Amino acid sequence: MSAEEPLFRVVRGVPTAEELAALVGAIMVRTRPAAAPAPTPRSHWTRSARPAAATLAAGHGAWRASGLPR
């Protein structure tokens, strides 16, 4: 396939520029690789077992707050 050869052609009808743009957009979306699946949410049980060190702060009441659920 050469660089001048079109990727697709309209066989019937005379589409407007907007219709061609919609067609190209639809083809581009269909040919895109699938997105990676979203990460599964962690349960409260899992989150409570691994407290985030960045959220713990030293100071008054820090010891008590370290044992509280987030």
From TrEMBL:
This is Acyl-CoA carboxylase subunit epsilon. One of its GO terms (molecular function) is propionyl-CoA carboxylase activity. It comes from Micromonospora sp. CCTCC AA 2012012. It holds the Pfam family ACC_epsilon.
